[in-house]
């Protein structure tokens, strides 16, 4: 049994965008729970740094992957199956977040963000589904954001319609989760979603001003900042047999801010 609770013993998990940040936190915890992990990351330097950070925790491979490119996603899934035999779990964590530009109101930019944050999750889901259907067992966890529920953020600084690409793609991921869950449930596959509040990753430190972090934290019930490891237990629940009858759900983990029904 692995160092953790062994709740994912022997399961094969593809975790997208796991070279750093929240995805890396998931990778660490999944290895501790006995899973074999595929670090599916676009940025090679991050992929390698992520692999260094999880060294010794269990079986893991790095596969350079662009989730917005259908061929790259399919190749990642094939490489995972070749290495470990099948795919049991997909964590759709990768997104354009660290370099998001809320001032770009071009249509091209909206398409770019959508192609990664929303279409990328669908493409990866399509790629893993045949393996999960065949074994009548699978777990997909999509990553949304508290931004999906924050309609007044970012501040309305445009005279016309602003750019909400990040927020609307994250809201789209909540809906995608329900459609995927409805279709895949009959094959023993659950699909759920985690919507984190502001979490203290390198990306957040770059994107969110320190003053804003304090303000947002002050508005939460818990009055404390979230770290990546604070999210990992929920991902393990969704990915394990404990979550067998939980599907189509979005769990907001933000210390008590949005509290949607
Ligand atoms: N940190 C937060 O406060 C926060 C809050 C809510 C939701 N989220 C979401 O959690 C996830 C991780 O956030 P993070 O803070 O770790 O951000 P991050 O930017 O550090 O991590 C995202 C990772 O995805 C990778 N990536 C980007 N495009 C990719 C692509 N096309 N194919 C494969 N990999 C790609 C990046 O290289 C990066 O390593 C994202 O989906 C983000 O939107 C973050």
Descriptive tags:
single chain; 261 residues; alpha/beta; Rossmann fold; 9 helices; globular; binds nicotinamide-adenine-dinucleotide
> What is the CATH H-level superfamily?
NAD(P)-binding Rossmann-like Domain
**Fraction in helix:** 40-55%
H/E element string? EHEHEHEHHEHEHHHE
Regions with pLDDT < 50 over 5+ consecutive residues? none
Mean pLDDT: 94
Helix-strand makeup class: alpha/beta
Using the coordinates shown, work out and report the CATH topology.
Answer: Rossmann fold
Number of domains: 1
Number of helices: 9
CATH architecture: 3-Layer(aba) Sandwich
What is the number of E strands?
Answer: 7
Describe the structure.
- This protein is α/β, with parallel strands linked by helices.
- The protein has one domain: NAD(P)-binding Rossmann-like Domain (Rossmann fold), CATH 3.40.50.
- It has 9 helices and 7 strands; from the N terminus they run βαβαβαβααβαβαααβ.
- It has helices at residues 21-32, 44-53, 70-84, 107-117, 119-135, 165-184, 202-207, 210-219, 229-239, and strands at 12-16, 36-41, 60-64, 89-92, 138-143, 189-196, 250-253.
- A 7-stranded parallel sheet has the order 3-2-1-4-5-6-7, with helices on both faces.
- The protein binds nicotinamide-adenine-dinucleotide.
- Nicotinamide-adenine-dinucleotide binds at residues 16-17, 19-23, 41-43, 46, 65-68, 93-98, 116, 120, 143, 145-146, 196, 198-199, 201-204.
